[in-house]
Amino acid sequence: MRASQDQLIRPGGRRRVFAAALLAVALAFTSACTDGDGGKPSSWQGGSESPAPKATATISEPATDAKDVPASTGITFTTKDAVETAVELKDAADKAVEGTLTADGKTWLPAGALEYGTRYTATVTATGDDGRPATATSTFTTMAKPGNQVRVSSFLGDNQVVGVGMPLIVKFSRAIPEDYRDDVQRRMTVTSTPAQGGIWHWVSPTEIRYRPKEFWKANSKVSYRVQAGGLPMGDGWYGRADLTVDIKIGAAVVMTVDNKTKRMTVTRNGAAVKTIPVSLGKKSTPSSSGTMVVIEKLRKTVFDTMEELGPEEGYRTKIDFAQRLTWGGEFIHAAPWSEGQQGSTNVSHGCVNVSMANGEWLFKNTQIGDPITVKGTERKLQNGNGWTDWNMSWDEYVKGSALPYEPPADPDTSPTPDAGTPTPTPTA
């Protein structure tokens, strides 16, 4: 066994010199040789190895040295025994890319589409309860800019104020194949203040809508984002750009029409504020029973059914204070010619007739997205005939999603103040 340094170096004259010489010889040998313990250097030389980090990290996508990676790519990774995880993405100029983790904590998404034809390096650092970090890296190159790009558009524009029944409506310039809809939906996020659970519903291959489980809470702030830039959308097509929209929800103005009483009740933030006599569709052209949403508001317009109904049944009439409810032509509107029947008899062609004064009041106190429910007529509302998202049960609506519903982690049930009378805002 080798003598320790304390045994070799002792106080004294020649003995100290001898000890120093002996130490120099020992160092000369040990600098080129190792002990018999698996080739490891002797611990007394300060060469002991640090223990391996307890945590581990692995990047599964993109694979290192991968080429032609979509510009929408996220960093998918796994960690083990980590109490803290950090993800960093840098371009070839060593500039950091902003981004956030997905809700499941398994993927890091950049804040926007990456640059085409650019080299990036991703680093995932996992730290265990031992305080020692473990890292995984992947360097990859994004694809060249594709020639086939899908445009993504929103019906609503920034800062628009809408009613509590307003669905978020996003359209694609090309049909999205079913196999790609879940990937597209994973890149669509909705944030509301206060928090409210909701889900996206595919109305058609080119249109998707979002509604909360219940009507939006009055005066909420809602932001939705589609991270579509560079996202594969099937058959060699890719999303053209990301889309972000911030809107506001107005007061909770809700209209309910009962065919039995021929009355409309208007509530604002839960309190009844007005009762209005109405005339609904006559038996040959009944109004639809169901929950609809105000789609558009027209201060003055002309109803022209001559081509549709012919000269005997058709008509061409100037209309005031019109609010569209269905694509098939049902409106709330002022009808001075039926004021004598309003509240007692149905004489319209399917619309909700009100007086000029009540039509003007409704027009001033409602906005796009306000819901109206009509009850007790001979005809049921057909889903798809307007924004009929609220005419479906929650379970039915969830079935239209490519992903399962996940309720918000911490819903806010605090009340919201009344922001005052809403005014109509033009659509985007």
Provide an overview of this structure.
With 428 residues, this protein is mainly beta. It has helices at residues 5-8, 14-30, 178-186, 306-313, 356-365, 394-399; strands at 56-61, 75-80, 84-91, 99-101, 107-110, 119-127, 133-141, 149-150, 152-154, 161-162, 168-172, 188-193, 198-204, 207-212, 221-226, 238-239, 243-249, 253-258, 263-268, 271-277, 288-293, 296-304, 316-324, 331-334, 352-354, 371-375, 379-380. The longest helix is centred in the N-terminal third of the chain and has 17 residues, at 14-30. The N and C termini lie far apart (85 Å). The relative contact order is 0.13.
Through-space gap between termini: 85 Å
* Average pLDDT for all residues: 87
Taking strands numbered 1, 2, ... along the chain, how are they ordered across the largest sheet? 20-19-18-26-21-27
Write down the overall geometry.
Answer: elongated
Described by strand count, sense and barrel closure, the largest sheet is: 6 strands, mixed
How much of the sequence is in beta strands?
25-35%
| Low-confidence spans | 1-44, 411-428
Structural class: mainly beta
